[in-house]
């Protein structure tokens, strides 16, 4: 953090203004790896990655805009997918070391061998996939060289999964990829399905459009590449500095202003990056020290940042990679998914904002003096073109419905405006190389995870077990939607502890979503529910990666920060149930906008009381410690009443919205009246003024 020099004042010297440098200046924080040990390529390998990334982006542009780079040759989608795999997957073994003892300053011979073997297998399969489509090889009959290349690809994909996502991801996916080989075994029970030979399973996995070349890789090839390019370009043109200074200018003076700035800044950055870890490592380095200086405990500061950054994958217009996979699963446009996420994302950040406000009020944490904050107009004047570019992206997504084209147009406009109006972040040849390198590292990781997880989908598609499993789940739950939702939430949270958000979503979208849909629940709401719960694993111990990353910045104990994150974010664990109960909250239904906004207002109103009860300070009432022995009964009633108010009625609920709201008010109104009467004229006792 840097401070501007004091400005002169007619009466007295002005306080130093808080002004942040670009948090993405080094760009090291844009790496998305779930593991912490990664190599930075140098020399010829670095240039190879840069060239491969440039080729990947150009191939994507050629495919999306139908530019016909290949004269006299029309490329099949499957050939295009394999080209991307051939360009990116081999680098997994160069960037991600094979073990803790593997060197980071050089590339061992066995990783080079992996690189060569993976490239060879991908090229063989790419050259075979057109013939496979004509001859139906994915169902058997493929020649032996193709089978051998397929087996090699199967093996290297599992190793790529291990390196990018860790042993937990590999051990979760590998048994299911080989499951078709023994799918008819009696001991499998409800998982029993159609069995395949090794040759049949290999052919289906690597040649069909349902497995390796299925939904995850299709999402990556069609839309993810463009949005990653846009997000990286945005950060490399100084948007991080703009968003953080804007957050300080708008929210810094509020009660507990430093924490509210953290929520607002992380939300803004997350809307553009769609990444949890890079959000923590960029925004957190700026906001956590200011929060600590303002009086927040180190662990609480880290918890706020972790929760705020976790919402990044949920916040449109640029959500996490999982959102693109959702669009492919549901066969809808990405814009539809982004629209559906607007209210859940808003409720997520409203919940955090109110939680922090109640905490700050209870502990007497003031805002930052206006004299120390950046000026709103100066901040906007310096970065107006970011707002213009984001507006273009949103218009192209929502009005023109050009989701595959929108990020490329927005990136082009951004770079032109940046070159014209910014001296500090104007790009040079070395900037372009760094831009390609950063994108390449992200592409490599995502291809390693998405391609490997694609085999999970292929295994269940091959065996035909999904429909029967849905019936078995319904039978276990007794057709009780609430029980099945609870089972799904618990399973998603547990799986999310060991899997990436995308892998967790894919797993449950195959196994659990069909059962929930058979109960008549809205498809979009069901998939958002699964996605949301998988996302929450980032702040839930014992593997709370966002919390642990923030703890490292704050200098607080990792596990304590994880539990603190759950407490800070406790309200956000309720929100997924709200939009499953009434899909208007994901803007689905007959009159989704009017009904959705009404339900959002009720949910926000209920959240005000839930957070008041959790933190012990109720807005318009005061510090509940002044209620004496009645403090905890009042807090419990506030949480219950707020939760009832926020819960949508109708649908699968046995009572109407009017009845639900009336019940909530019947709990809250007497509770608030009693609290005000008890607290009238009662000061805080000396023992209640505890240290923060």
TrEMBL record:
Residues 9-25 have a biased composition (Basic and acidic residues). The chain crosses the membrane at residues 47-65, 80-97, 109-129, 135-157, 164-182, 224-249, 261-282, 302-327, 334-354, 383-400, 443-470, 482-510, 530-554, 566-585, 597-620, 632-652, 658-679. Signal peptide: none annotated. GO terms for molecular function: transmembrane transporter activity. It holds the Pfam family DctM. Residues 152-592 form the TRAP C4-dicarboxylate transport system permease DctM subunit domain. InterPro entries: DctM, TRAP_DctM-Dct_fused. GO terms for cellular component: plasma membrane. Part of the tripartite ATP-independent periplasmic (TRAP) transport system. NCBIfam families: TRAP_fused. This is TRAP transporter permease. It comes from Bradyrhizobium sediminis.
């Amino acid at each position: 953090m840097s401070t501007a020099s004091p400005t002169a004042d007619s009466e007295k010297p002005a306080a130093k203004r808080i002004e942040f440098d670009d948090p993405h200046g080094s760009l090291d924080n844009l790496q998305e790896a779930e593991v912490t040990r990664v190599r930075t390529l140098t020399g010829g390998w670095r240039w190879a990655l840069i060239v491969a990334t440039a080729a990947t982006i150009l191939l994507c542009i050629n495919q999306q805009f139908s530019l016909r780079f290949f004269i006299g040759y029309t490329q099949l989608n499957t050939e295009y997918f394999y080209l991307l795999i051939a360009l990116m997957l081999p680098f997994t073994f160069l960037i991600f070391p094979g073990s803790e003892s593997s060197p980071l300053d050089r590339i061992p011979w066995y990783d080079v061998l992996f690189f060569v073997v993976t490239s060879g297998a991908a090229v063989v399969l790419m050259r075979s996939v057109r013939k496979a489509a004509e001859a139906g090889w994915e169902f058997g009959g493929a020649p032996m060289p193709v089978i051998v290349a397929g087996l090699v690809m199967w093996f290297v994909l599992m190793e790529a999964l291990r390196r990018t996502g860790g042993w937990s991801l590999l051990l979760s996916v590998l048994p299911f990829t080989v499951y078709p080989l023994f799918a008819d075994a009696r001991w499998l029970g409800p998982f029993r399905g159609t069995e395949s030979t090794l040759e049949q399973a290999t052919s289906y996995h690597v040649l069909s459009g349902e497995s390796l070349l299925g939904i995850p890789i299709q999402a990556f090839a069609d839309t993810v590449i463009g949005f990653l390019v846009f997000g990286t370009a945005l950060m490399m043109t100084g948007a991080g500095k703009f968003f953080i200074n804007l957050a300080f200018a708008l929210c810094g003076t509020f009660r507990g202003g430093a924490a509210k700035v953290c929520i607002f800044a992380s939300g803004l950055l997350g809307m553009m990056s769609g990444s949890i870890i890079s959000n923590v490592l960029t925004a957190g380095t700026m906001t956590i020290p200011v929060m600590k200086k303002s009086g927040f405990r180190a662990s609480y500061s880290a918890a706020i940042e972790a929760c705020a950054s976790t919402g990044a994958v949920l916040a449109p217009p640029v959500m996490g990679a999982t959102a693109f996979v959702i669009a492919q699963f549901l066969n809808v446009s990405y814009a539809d998914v982004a629209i559906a996420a607007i209210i859940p994302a808003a409720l997520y950040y409203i919940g955090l904002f109110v939680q922090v406000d109640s905490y700050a009020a209870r502990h007497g944490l003031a805002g930052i003096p206006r004299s120390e904050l950046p000026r709103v107009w100066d901040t906007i004047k310096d970065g107006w073109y970011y707002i213009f570019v984001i507006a273009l992206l949103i218009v192209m997504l929502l009005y023109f419905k050009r989701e595959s084209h929108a990020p490329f147009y927005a990136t082009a406009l951004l770079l032109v405006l940046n070159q014209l109006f910014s001296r500090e972040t104007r790009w040079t040849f070395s900037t372009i190389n760094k831009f390609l390198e950063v994108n390449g590292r992200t592409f490599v990781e995502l291809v390693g995870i998405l391609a490997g997880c694609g085999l999970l989908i292929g295994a269940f598609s091959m065996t035909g077990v999904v429909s029967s499993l849905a019936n078995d789940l319904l039978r276990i739950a007794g057709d009780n939607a609430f029980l099945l939702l609870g089972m799904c939430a618990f399973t998603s949270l547990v799986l999310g502890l060991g899997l990436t958000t995308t892998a967790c979503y894919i797993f449950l979208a195959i196994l659990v979503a069909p059962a929930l849909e058979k109960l008549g629940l809205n498809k979009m709401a069901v998939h958002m529910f699964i996605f949301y719960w998988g996302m929450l694993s980032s702040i839930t111990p014992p593997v709370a990666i966002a919390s642990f990353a923030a703890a490292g910045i704050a200098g607080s104990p990792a596990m304590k920060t994880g539990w603190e994150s759950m407490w800070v974010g406790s309200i956000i664990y309720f929100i997924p149930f709200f939009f499953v109960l009434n899909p208007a909250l994901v803007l689905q239904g007959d009159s989704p906008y009017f009904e959705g906004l009404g339900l959002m207002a009720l949910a926000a109103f209920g959240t005000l009381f839930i957070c008041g009860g959790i933190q012990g300070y109720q807005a318009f009432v005061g510090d509940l410690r002044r209620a004496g022995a009645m403090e905890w009964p009042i807090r419990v009633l506030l949480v219950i009443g707020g939760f009832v108010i926020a819960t949508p009625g109708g649908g699968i609920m046995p009572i109407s919205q009017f009845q639900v709201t009336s019940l909530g008010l019947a709990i809250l109104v007497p509770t608030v009246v009693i609290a005000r009467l008890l607290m009238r004229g009662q000061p805080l006792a000396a023992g209640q003024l505890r240290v923060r």
